[in-house]
Amino acid sequence: MPKTFSSLIVYFSLLLPTILFPGSVLADVKSPMLPNSEIDTPVCYMETVDGRILDLGYLCPSPPEEVTSPCNSDAAGMAISNVKYDGNSLTGQVTNRTCKMVKLVKINYEVLDGQGNPIDNGFIYTQPSEVSPGKTASFGGIVVPGAEVNVTYVEWSEG
């Protein structure tokens, strides 16, 4: 439904009771009064019979504000999440928080024994191999069994 048509429906559905029952409807209104202004006319409003304009913005849906984060070119530019190690395989996801397309994203890891000593290390590439800004890629592979596996750092090429 077009926004203008929605606004008209809200306007007329609120205006009709005001015309039919002017005293009772306005007595319960808890909307802030707005000054008559041609510059800042709200999208959702009601004009009373005496010319006052009530802001009804809280009744009208508004698009969510887009949250943007600053670009990162260092290791913080690639966020690792959902890392799981089941004793034989390492899986997880990486999100591109840089402002550029990246490719050949390599997840480096180390395998530790029960005492916390490193017994192996390696890397796993993400799938897909190219990751757009804001997008997420998965990684997974077989690793040497150990007590714990830690992701140590992420490498990538800008593409």
Task: Tell me what you see in this structure.
With 159 residues, this protein is of the alpha+beta class. It has 2 domains: 57 residues, no CATH class; 84 residues, Immunoglobulin-like (Sandwich). The protein is built from 2 helices and 10 strands; from the N terminus they run ααββββββββββ. The strands form 2 sheets. Strands 4, 5, 6, 7, 8, 9 and 10 form a 7-stranded antiparallel beta sheet that branches. A 3-stranded antiparallel beta sheet has the order 1-3-2. The longest helix has 18 residues. It is elongated and about 80 Å long. The two termini are 41 Å apart. About 4% of the residues have low confidence.
What's this, in brief?
The chain has 159 residues and is of the alpha+beta class.
How is the topology of this model organized?
Blueprint lengths: L2 H18 L1 H6 L5 E2 L10 E3 L5 E3 L22 E8 L3 E8 L5 E11 L5 E10 L2 E2 L4 E7 L5 E11 L1
Key traits:
2 domains; alpha+beta; 159 residues; seven-stranded antiparallel beta sheet; three-stranded antiparallel beta sheet; Immunoglobulin-like
The residue fraction in helices comes out at 10-25%
pLDDT averaged over residues:
77
What's the shape? elongated
Give the structural class: alpha+beta
Low-confidence stretches: 24-29
Total separate domains:
2
How many helices?
2
> Which fold does the CATH topology of the largest domain refer to?
Immunoglobulin-like
What profile does the largest beta sheet have? 7 strands, antiparallel
The tally of beta strands, per DSSP, is 10
Approximate strand percentage: 35-45%
